[in-house]
Amino acid sequence: MAYHRQPLDVLALPTWQALQQHRQAMQHFSMRDAFAGNPKRFEQFSLSGCGLFLDYSKNLASDETITLLMALAREVGLEQSIRAMFDGEKLNASEGRPALHTALRRPLGDKVLVDGVDVMPHVQRVLQQMTELVGRIHNGLWRGFTEKPITDVVNIGIGGSFLGPQLVSEALLPFAQRGVRCHYLANIDGSEFHELSAKLQAETTLFIVSSKSFGTLETLKNAQAARGWYLAQGGSEAELYRHFIAVSSNREAAVAFGIREENIFPMWDWVGGRYSLWSAIGLPIALSIGMSNFKELLAGAYSMDMHFKTAPFEQNMPVLLALLGIWYGNFWDAQSQAILPYDHYLRNITKHLQQLDMESNGKSVRQDGSPVSGSTGPVIWGGVGCNGQHAYHQLLHQGTGLIPADFIVPVVSFNPVADHHQWLYANCLSQSQALMLGKSREEAEAELRAKGMSEDDVQRLAPHKVIPGNRPSNTLVLERISPRRLGALVALYEHKVFTQSAIWGINAFDQWGVELGKELGKGVYSRMVGSEQSSAEDGSTQGLINYFRGRHRG
Ligand code: F6P
């Protein structure tokens, strides 16, 4: 049965209207004054759990803001929505499926029913299958066509079959087991294939064709290219099974490609691509860090699941982050959200959260097909600090729009070099501090006068030096990156995204918008290669096709 809750028009709710009035009252709210007036603001607006510490005190939020946002969550029935997700109700109504990525991290002995069937034995069986593969590769028992052990694993996949595994395997590099290097091949761009294959030897390389649908153009093209390269390097069709395995819910297509039944790791339609790193899609993670670390990752995510499910909303990290996001997006016209990890190992988190958030909540209609009445998911962008400080932070500080930022930073570095980590941490803090404090006209003028400038120069330069400040941010601190804490961190954002979708009444688990481009791509391709004579639907596209054809003829 499809998810039955009738989406509410959230804008018509009394609490929404109260929030609108409250927004007017907050027009002149000053974070500086709020801290000055309340020495306990940091303690009051921060919390810890699941190995993470969240400081949300640098927000345009008073006690009343939080009270009203919590009331909104209750008024929309968030508690029931959370229960419905964990219970496997078909929240992905347009595809008639539940969204049960949380089942992938549940402990042995739990039961999760989908259409009356307990899926947990399947989950456990795949974990066992992964354990066997990882053991054989790590112990040098899985050998290539020249009987040499596998040294390199290439994950061929895109979107959710790439971004989550890449984030985690690279973030947990300090936990990597010796012997296997992981690589990623995602784009259909031949240059990516060329650069990667140049570094590898076919006889010691294992390809994981990672595609839930086994129908994704980029992945299939790259898999074919990899097969051609393997054969050209001396591999044979008969030994292909030693070098190609698959993760897919489309077993037939994987077999048709030439992958042996026993080398196909199943996926289920109740796990969405961008929520799938916890499944066999996480094989490159497990191959890099080993199964016990992979299980730690699952345990961390599970601890966040339990926190999300049971903590009161006021102390619930995903709920707090989600409501603050709604506060800025729907009431302060913020259109984007910056994700700023201050850690080299977390450098890919922005890309993963981009897909997670934008593919989930980039929607304009509610579950029942009616148009949403306010804005939904923001643009997610950002990147690793301090690099961003010397690139785009200027816009965060002095641009015309309000851009809330999440800073993510560990306390302990894996690789201390002199006092670098102290400086990295200090920069993270000073950025959120600068966003909040800003610099007033008086401060700017006083600073320039102190440098001995003429009054004319002071007046000329002061406007450029003024920084509005009062710009919001959250800071998430991890004691140190570990599989468990990373699992909790990624699950935190999954639940944040879900909470927002539940409040807006949209489906976070489908992605119909990406289909049109794929469909049109076939027509464009046929016209480019000349197998289709009719003109493209529009002059611009046809003109660009002609340009390509002209260049390739010459
Ligand atoms: O095109 C979008 C998408 O469908 C994502 O949702 C998904 O993560 C990605 O493509 C890859 O899909 P698959 O794992 O089926 O190849």
UniProtKB/TrEMBL annotation:
The protein's annotated pathway: Carbohydrate biosynthesis; gluconeogenesis; Carbohydrate degradation; glycolysis; D-glyceraldehyde 3-phosphate and glycerone phosphate from D-glucose: step 2/4
A Gene Ontology cellular-component term: cytosol
Reaction catalysed by this enzyme: alpha-D-glucose 6-phosphate = beta-D-fructose 6-phosphate
Chief location of this protein within or outside the cell: cytoplasm
Annotated active site: E359 (proton donor), H390, K518
Subcellular location: Cytoplasm
E.C. number(s) listed in UniProt: 5.3.1.9
UniProt keyword terms in alphabetical order: Cytoplasm, Gluconeogenesis, Glycolysis, Isomerase
InterPro entries, per database record: G6P_Isomerase, G6P_Isomerase_C, Phosphoglucose_isomerase_CS, SIS_dom_sf, SIS_PGI_1, SIS_PGI_2
PROSITE patterns tied to this protein: P_GLUCOSE_ISOMERASE_1, P_GLUCOSE_ISOMERASE_2, P_GLUCOSE_ISOMERASE_3
GO terms under biological process: gluconeogenesis; glucose 6-phosphate metabolic process; glycolytic process
GO MF term set: carbohydrate derivative binding; glucose-6-phosphate isomerase activity; monosaccharide binding
PANTHER family: GLUCOSE-6-PHOSPHATE ISOMERASE
HAMAP family with a match to the protein in the record: G6P_isomerase (MF_00473)
Main function: Catalyzes the reversible isomerization of glucose-6-phosphate to fructose-6-phosphate.
Similarity comment: family membership: Belongs to the GPI family.
Protein's name according to its UniProt entry: Glucose-6-phosphate isomerase
Species in which this protein is naturally found: Phytopseudomonas punonensis
Lineage: Bacteria, Pseudomonadati, Pseudomonadota, Gammaproteobacteria, Pseudomonadales
Recorded name of the encoding gene: pgi
